[in-house]
Design goal:
Radius of gyration: 23 Å
Oligomer: single chain
Shape: elongated
Mean pLDDT: 91
Largest sheet: 5 strands, mixed
Strand content: 5-15%
Helix content: 40-55%
Order of helices and strands: HHHHHEHEHHEHEE
Number of helices: 9
Length: 233
């Protein structure tokens, strides 16, 4: 019942699932298997099978999971250290998308001001209520564009933590306040990243990749670092 009920929940939710979405279901299934095993423990072959399974897991799981256990879950500490070394107080750091902010807040201790895409008043935790408010605005990136424009026009640099997606053909000019008639509540972060990339592509004179995607970092928080210089109308 839990399997079918959880499937119905995810179907109704209609979100693209991530691995951690299945953790509650995994816990229920594990509990059910343990309960069934306990109920059948009076059978001799069940007792032997449980012991053999435990021994097999102890022998093989460390080798199977060795690479994952030593894989860094983020490179934002490397990005933060690089910015502390090279970014000046007059520069601007833009963290894209906004949900990298708690990690960046933890590791970055420099003097360069930083904002998120879209801007948030809270960086220590993920404030989805603030995110929802931004999604419902007519032009949620206006302050981000203004901050980038002012920085570049004053001959300083803009550092993009997380990069920005390149412009795409046939993209709408704006999704409008959420929910969008076609996309609903989905797709806004991807659209904002494209909007940021389009703005930088149209108005910056030069840009460089400072830190590329690392081959040995978990893909959920493998973050590049870009820098943009110069303003053009």
């Amino acid at each position: 019942m839990s399997i079918f009920t959880y499937y119905a929940f995810l179907k109704i939710l209609s979100y693209a699932t991530r691995p951690w979405y299945y953790l509650p279901l995994l816990c229920v299934v594990a509990g059910a298997i343990d309960l069934i095993g306990g109920m059948l423990a009076h059978l001799r072959w069940i007792k032997i099978a449980r012991v053999l399974f435990a021994i097999t897991a102890l022998l093989f799981l460390p080798f199977t999971l060795w690479k994952s256990a030593h894989e860094p879950l983020t490179d934002i500490d490397v990005v933060a250290h690089k910015l502390e070394e090279e970014a000046s107080p007059g520069d601007l750091i833009v963290v894209n998308p906004w949900h990298f902010a708690p990690s960046f807040y933890r590791y970055y201790h420099g003097s360069t001001p930083w904002i998120t895409v879209p801007t948030m008043s809270e960086h220590r935790i993920h404030r989805y209520d603030l995110m929802k408010s931004k999604m419902m605005e007519l032009d949620p990136l206006s302050d981000v564009r203004d901050a980038i424009r002012q920085t570049l026009q004053s001959y300083h640099r803009v550092w993009i933590v997380g990069g920005a997606r390149p412009p795409e053909e046939d993209m709408p000019v704006s999704l409008g306040p959420a929910p969008n008639p076609y996309f609903g509540w989905a797709g806004y972060m991807a659209f904002w990243s494209i909007e940021l990339g389009s703005f930088l592509n149209a108005h910056t004179i030069a840009g460089d990749v400072v830190i590329e995607l690392a081959p040995d970092v978990n893909s959920n928080e493998n973050i590049p670092l870009l820098v943009a210089r110069g303003w053009r109308n």
